[in-house]
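Assess this today:

___
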Amino acid sequence: MEIKSTKLLYTIAMLVLGLFMILPFLWMISTSFKTPNEVFQYPIQWIPQKVTFEHHLKVWTGKESFLIYYMNSLKIALICMVGATFLSSLAAYGFSRIEFKGRNLLFMFYLSMMMVPPQVLFVPKFILFDKIGIYNTHWALILPGLFTIFGVFLMRQFFMSIPQEITESAFVDGAGHFRIFFQLMLPLAKPALATLAIIDFSWHWNDYENALVFLLDRDLYTVPLGMQNFILEFNIDYNGMMAATSAGIVPMLLVFLIGQKYIIQGITGSAVKG
């Protein structure tokens, strides 16, 4: 009885914390349907007195439609997500299943690169991209985005949890590394792949600094840069910004909803193994 009461208290506490976490999102959605005069009203009116769709329409049909920004962000985020997930898995397989001299030392050196602040690389990357002719193009965001140290670490840890006997049996049956990787390891790694895909997509969808540094033409702007359209000379269009932000979280929600099944399978599967 005492255990059940403790679980009930934990559940209630998590519910309260969850409600506090979603309050900013509820305010964002509510504000996107308000008039400008209602934005900073106190006490906060969660349900607008007069619901208006003007700001949502302006996002898509205004003078500078957000459609091109959304398409640019989708293009960059999807290519980076697919490429980074595949390349990270391939590198992780090598670090976890292929024996070679200095493997662990090389992996530790690779992980140490995570301690380098990304801002330090802006100038070298700017010079490099300018030299090879990809500055002010989407390739300046896509090519570096195909490689992620965190992704290699995540996938390697998952591959290390798969029993060695499985791959050894495949070797005995005559399978090579590529066949084992594509037909054996990747199907088993669906939970980790889904987790990495969601994290990587969210990172590139919300990436502001790289887009700000390496993109100049407005036609190449991504959603975070497009938000600057609502920062006017003398004021800020909060309603329009909240409407654009509300629409901006939809792709991330869709990616999560598509991949959550595999994440739950990974959590439950690891719990059973444990």
Notes: The first helix runs from residue 2 to 32. The CA atoms of residues 146 and 272 lie 33 Å apart. DSSP finds 14 helices and no strands in the chain.
